[in-house]
């Protein structure tokens, strides 16, 4: 049997236990990523009290991991193509473990800042490695479901992290990072022993012992072994696009719209995800009470990820995505402007921040993907994601900067909700452009 036939059968037949296990491991990886990236949001108020940082420097800490994530997504994603998805996942997990461990033992602002950058680098580069494996090892019928579960695992990890952090903060904020370091380190032997290597990488790139390694994976999947490897030019995609192809007409317009839309949306989303606990502590809540709002937000995120497919099937991805972006902006503004006595309404706005923003994220991804021709799709999406990561870092920093110069919760949330309205307009144009084409 030729490899192309194997790949076709892998996509068309029901998923085996081995394929499901691969998706499950990817979910565990993303769960820990969710906790590791937002651990600083849970620990932030306690760090601020101990080191008397003030909002601007706390904003720098919040944005450090997100900036590292942007650099990792753009500058380190090549690891998955050069050394394999499994190897890249192990490298990224090691990087995250080191970052979280250093954070747990940090004795100065700059030591913690550097640790957060290292953590962000690993998290940012992880998406390319794990996402490729999930895409490859999922059947065509279950691919969207698998990707949805992996995306939802990020929010579930944040929920569990928020719950555990309530207890860990009674020990000290360093325990939050220490817990994340241990969890991530425990995943390294799991990935080493159980996560498969990409068949496309083994057969296409053909590293050392590629045939025996590919046949070992094929046996686990229930296929007959290959007698020999096909020539590389048969397996590798032809016409693979470069960054220059993305920034030339006619793709340039789609690239600009995708980057602008994802930048504005991520700026608002990660502002509120990072600053929500601190804003509620300033409003008079305890650390545990403030974290409860973040937990509600991530419960909403899981619900949003679960039901967005139903909405898009009925009303179309463009309409649903634009609507969810507008709801996100309204919910962020409501979170900031509602009176503190209206606790129920504030919690409701917290839920809709998660529900709408994570549902919108899935729609934005779908619209971005369809906005690029096949031969430059991966490069175009990578460029758009990098713009989004920089937007998230700027949003986290701006929250602290505006607080430092005297802005209060109401005007802060209204101002930083506006980029999502801009994103809704831009994504609407991108979606309309895709339909017209």
Task: Summarize the entry for a quick read.
By secondary structure, the chain is mostly helical. The chain contains 18 helices and no strands.
Structural class category: mainly alpha
Question: Taking Cα atoms only, what radius of gyration do you get, to the nearest Å?
Answer: 22 Å
Query: What is the CA-CA span between the terminal residues?
Result: 38 Å
Kindly report the name of the CATH homologous superfamily of the largest domain.
MFS general substrate transporter like domains
Topology:
Layout lengths: L2 H10 L4 H35 L3 H21 L2 H6 L1 H20 L4 H29 L5 H26 L4 H22 L4 H7 L4 H12 L10 H4 L7 H4 L4 H32 L4 H29 L1 H21 L5 H28 L6 H28 L4 H28 L1
Give structural notes:
- By secondary structure, this protein is mainly alpha-helical.
- It has two domains: 236 residues, MFS general substrate transporter like domains (Growth Hormone, Chain: A), CATH 1.20.1250; 197 residues, Growth Hormone, Chain: A (Up-down Bundle).
- The protein contains 18 helices and no strands.
- Helix 14 crosses helix 16.
- The longest helix has 35 residues.
- It is globular, with a radius of gyration of 22 Å.
- About 2% of the residues have low confidence.
Keywords:
mainly alpha; Growth Hormone, Chain: A
């Amino acid at each position: 049997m030729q490899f192309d036939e194997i790949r076709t059968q892998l996509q068309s037949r029901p998923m085996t236990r081995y394929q499901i296990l691969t998706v499950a491991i990817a979910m565990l990886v993303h769960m820990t990523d969710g906790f590791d990236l937002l651990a600083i949001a849970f620990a932030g108020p306690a760090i601020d009290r101990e080191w008397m940082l003030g909002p601007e420097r706390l904003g720098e800490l919040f944005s450090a991991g997100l900036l590292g994530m942007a650099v990792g997504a753009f500058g380190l994603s090549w690891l998955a193509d050069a050394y394999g998805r499994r190897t890249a996942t192990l490298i990224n997990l090691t990087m995250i473990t080191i970052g979280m461990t250093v954070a747990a033992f940090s004795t100065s602002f700059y030591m913690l800042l550097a640790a957060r950058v290292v953590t962000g680098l690993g998290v940012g580069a992880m998406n390319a490695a794990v996402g490729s494996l999930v895409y490859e090892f999922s059947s065509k019928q279950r691919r969207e479901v698998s990707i949805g579960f992996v995306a939802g695992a990020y929010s579930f990890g944040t929920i569990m992290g928020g719950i555990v952090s309530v207890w860990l903060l009674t020990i000290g904020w360093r325990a939050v990072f220490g817990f994340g370091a241990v969890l991530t380190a425990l995943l390294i032997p799991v990935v080493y022993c159980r996560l498969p290597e990409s068949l496309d990488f083994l057969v296409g790139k053909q590293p050392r012992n590629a045939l025996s390694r590919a046949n070992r994976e094929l046996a686990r999947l229930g296929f007959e072994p290959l007698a020999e490897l096909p020539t590389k030019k048969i397996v590798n995609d032809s016409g693979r696009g470069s960054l220059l192809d993305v920034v030339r007409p006619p793709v340039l317009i789609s690239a600009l719209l995708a980057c602008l839309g994802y930048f504005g949306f991520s700026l608002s989303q990660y502002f509120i995800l990072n600053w929500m606990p601190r804003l509620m502590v300033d409003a008079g809540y305890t650390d545990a009470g403030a974290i409860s709002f973040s937990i509600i937000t991530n419960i909403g995120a899981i619900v949003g990820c679960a039901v967005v497919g139903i909405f898009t099937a009925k009303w179309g991805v463009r309409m649903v995505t634009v609507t969810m972006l507008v709801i996100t902006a309204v919910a962020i503004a409501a979170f900031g402007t509602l009176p503190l006595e209206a606790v129920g309404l504030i919690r409701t706005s917290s839920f809709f921040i998660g529900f709408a923003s994570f549902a919108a994220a899935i729609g934005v991804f779908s619209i971005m993907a369809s906005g690029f021709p096949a031969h430059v799709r991966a490069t175009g999406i990578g460029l758009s994601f990098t713009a989004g990561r920089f937007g998230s870092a700027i949003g986290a920093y701006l929250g602290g900067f505006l607080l430092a110069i005297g802005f209060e919760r109401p005007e802060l949330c209204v101002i930083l909700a506006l980029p999502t309205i801009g994103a809704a307009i831009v994504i609407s144009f991108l979606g309309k452009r895709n339909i017209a084409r």
